[in-house]
Amino acid sequence: MSEILDEEELLTLRLCIDSKWTSKEKGEDDSVSAGNVSSVDSKISRLLEARDKVFGEGCVDIPRYHEESKNVRLVGLLFEAATAVDIHDLSSAIDTLQEIYMSSSLISDPIQRVVAYFADALATRLFPPRSRFYGSMDKICATQEDEFSAFMEFYRVLPFYQFAHFTANQEIIEAFEEEAVINGGRIHVIDFDASYGFQWPSLIQSFSDMATTTTSRTISLTITGYGRNVEELRVTKERLESFANSCANLSFKFKGILTGSSFTSIDVEANSTLVVNLPFYLQTLSSSQETKDTLASVYSMNPSLVVLVEKEGNQRTRSFLPNFMELLYFYTAIFDSLHEHLPLESIERFNIEKNYLGKKIKLEIGQGHIEETFEHDKSWKETMKGFGFEGKKMSSRSLSQAKLLLKIKSPCTMKGDGANCGFAVFKRDEGHEIALTWRDRALVSISCWRRTSW
């Protein structure tokens, strides 16, 4: 790795990029020669040209294939670039990222693809929004419509979210059945991330079938969903209500609430089964106080069940590099599984990676989210117990349903129950969790919790 930039070069880069990257103090001489500025501009231009060959419109016409040893080198370069970014060694960061761009492709093997997106996320850290170079890095940014379309394709192709949703729904159904004598056929679910509402049609259908075939009364299902904006909640409400209207013997209501709103506005009918759904939610909180407030509020609701869904490998520390590597391992597994499910030339796969996964990687790394999440030195299991919850053993029906889902969604990868055979599900933590893995790499886990019995 090249030496750290001297004082004059740092000042030059500050003018070209952003002052947060330099260690110069205010009041020092800010005179920079036109020749130095031109030289730095040229260096950055070469980086952007190399990037454009990967992310430009013509990228799909230049596949590059490498031997495994060369991909190992590519990963090594990515780690060098991340290290340079972490210590503000801009010269090394630019040189290494340029080399990565020149050696990677979005239509080659999974390693090259994931390294390209991670390199691009690192590059965006060099060019904050106010920089005059930021516009050149904007080609990967997806519109909301592109992102939604890519998410739908991702949801359909891989069992990642479907595993989480169907397994959680099975536990919710069983919680309702356990309280059938007292709940009067009423259940209320509080969803801390309703997002597009993809989890709930299957639950709506299940309760409709239950009311039609096994009970003599209509089942009342209410979902209170937190969302990022009013429009998203409106669309989710319309979509779910439209679906529920076609389901017999079911009374359905959806109430959307903006994320961050008070819990006091949630009205739950007496004796109804109350379930709190925390899908990938706690890991997004940016302070320990937010976690404390959230779990204290959940506890005060006295829910019948709390469903916790976690993305694996997301245990934060205060150090950038360990977080970076954990995210790299996680997304490498995702890209590898996509590679097995969709052909290399698939436009669908390209859209998923560019407009959904690429954007998530950029948000987590390139725009600083990796540092915003507070250091969490306890497992979520310890955290939940510390707030008065005890784990519930996951049901055998949930595990069986998850295995059936994999057989339907990914038959080509289900070659056995052992490691390195594609997707697999298994119980762990003495039956208190069910995890989804890809080639023995855990991707997502689900656990269920209840208030501790005193």
Automatic annotation (TrEMBL):
<keyword id="KW-0804">Transcription</keyword>
<dbReference type="InterPro" id="IPR005202">
    <property type="entry name" value="TF_GRAS"/>
</dbReference>
<feature type="region of interest" description="SAW">
    <location>
        <begin position="366"/>
        <end position="450"/>
    </location>
</feature>
<comment type="similarity">
    <text>Belongs to the GRAS family.</text>
</comment>
<dbReference type="Pfam" id="PF03514">
    <property type="entry name" value="GRAS"/>
</dbReference>
<feature type="short sequence motif" description="VHIID">
    <location>
        <begin position="187"/>
        <end position="191"/>
    </location>
</feature>
<protein>
    <submittedName>
        <fullName>Scarecrow-like protein 21</fullName>
    </submittedName>
</protein>
<keyword id="KW-0805">Transcription regulation</keyword>
<feature type="region of interest" description="Leucine repeat I (LRI)">
    <location>
        <begin position="72"/>
        <end position="132"/>
    </location>
</feature>
